[in-house]
Amino acid sequence: MTDPHVTIEPSILYLGTPVVLISTQNEDGTANLAPMSSAWWLGWRCMLGLQTASQTPQNMIRTGQCVLNLASPKQADAVNRLARLTGTKEIPVLKRKLGYAYEPRKFEVAGLTPLPSHTVAAPRVLECPIQLEAVVAARHGIMDDDPQVAGLISAFEVRITRVHVHPDLLMEGHENRIDPAKWQPLIMNFQKLYGVSPAEIVPSRLAEIDELAYRMPDVDRARGEADLAA
Fold this sequence. Notes:
Elements: E1 17-18, E2 20-25, E3 31-36, E4 39-42, E5 45-51, H1 55-63, E6 65-70, H2 76-82, E7 85-86, H3 93-97, E8 101-102, H4 106-110, E9 114-115, E10 124-125, E11 130-142, E12 153-165, E13 187-189, E14 192-194, H5 217-229
Parallel strand pairs: 7-8
Antiparallel strand pairs: 1-13, 2-3, 2-6, 4-5, 5-12, 6-11, 9-10, 11-12, 13-14
């Protein structure tokens, strides 16, 4: 058998992930907003890969909170306006090399609207169709086995405490299910922004499993915390 593949060494492996606008609260009580795409979910948990010295992770370390605002293609221009901006006055070395500039007024620059959250201090983004309030559960060093970059990048495990979804995205006949044909995330694919097709390629065998089978205790935990806070 002939192998048609070639062996390469790409500098990045951004093979297609959703764009997230992370909102956090600065030390002076103002809001910070940053686009990122190193994110993945399991149950009501999410892993976020961030440069440790940046404003967003520093806010998350200090407050233990954030909001994950998932962008659709309609927010692509706003994402671009936020790109290469940082809320850190002393710009980290790596970001300085990449041409980042300090900007404390992220919402205004992006043309987005802050919206109060229910369970965390950081605001949501009104224009984003899906908003996930979250608390930090753990932080892990990434590449700490390499002394050249140890401490540079962190992976944050966050626990979702409240989910907000535009009603147009809900599956007909279900109050707690998002219709994958209606939700069109903005995708970062090797530094470029793409949408996704609403057409299902083939029926998925996984979709034959009731979504409730995946429900984890975090859902009830978040509801109980919200009831206590009310």
